[in-house]
Amino acid sequence: LKNDREVVLAAVAQHGSALEYASETLKNDREVVLAAVAQHGWALAFASAELKNDRKVVLAAVAQSGSALEYASETLKNDRDFVLAAVAQDASALEYASETLQNDQILEKVSNLNIGNSAAFLALEPLKTKLKQETNTERKEAGSKMILDMETALVSHYEQGEDFNFEQAFKQAIDTAR
């Protein structure tokens, strides 16, 4: 049964940690591992090394359980976007980030706020992905600044609560980038 893809897929959809008992082949099956980590982020511990470096798989894991970052590849533990998503979901995830990122001011603030919801930070992912494809240096710098300003606005929103004009801060970040 450890090699039966349909049986394992059904098992991990119910209990993500069942991935531990799957065959090595299925621990390297992207669909099976995605189903497991979506149900239980910590199931990433049982995924193949290749999938622990897969952006989509790790993002699904940390969105479900930020501390699943512990089992991500060293490359992704040093990827600010992944660490931000993980820390926004679970403040304690910062301890699994690379040493460099453990000292990032925004990541520290997000960790201290203990937001418990990475959705707002994950919403910036498409912008970050598009920015990575940008070839114009000036536009890339402006885009990077805009995203950093948006992250800062999110942190301020959570710090200041209802008194903070989140929409205005986002608009200002976009206007500055323009």
H/E series: HHHHHHHHHH
The main pleated sheet reads as: none
- N- to C-terminal separation? 56 Å
- Whole-number radius of gyration? 18 Å
- What is the β-strand count? 0
Structural class: mainly alpha
How helix-rich are the residues, as a percent range?
55-70%
Any idea what the shape is? elongated
Mean pLDDT: 86
Uncertain runs are none
What does this protein look like?
The protein is mainly α. The protein is built from 10 helices and no strands. The longest helix is centred in the last third of the chain and has 24 residues. It is elongated and about 55 Å long.
Strand and helix layout:
Elements: H1 5-14, H2 30-39, H3 55-64, H4 74-77, H5 80-89, H6 105-113, H7 119-122, H8 125-133, H9 137-160, H10 166-177
Helix pairs in contact: 1-2, 2-3, 3-5, 5-6, 6-9, 8-9, 9-10
